[in-house]
Prior knowledge:
By secondary structure, the protein is mainly alpha-helical.
Amino acid sequence: xxxxxxxxxxxxxxxxxxxxxxxxxxxxxxxxxxxxxxxxxxxxxxxxxxxxxxxxxxxxxxxxxxxxxxx
Length: 71
């Protein structure tokens, strides 16, 4: 019974590694392409904890708050 749990854990680790690698690819893009890449990749549940996605969400939140204050 340990094997199915180990297989599930290995699959989850592989999925997280793949999500993190896709987020890392966004770092090489510039301006709008980077924003679009991060919006897509960071929207995936498996990438939510990636440091770049955490920073991206904070930046988006700050921009939205600034827009609301300027109205």
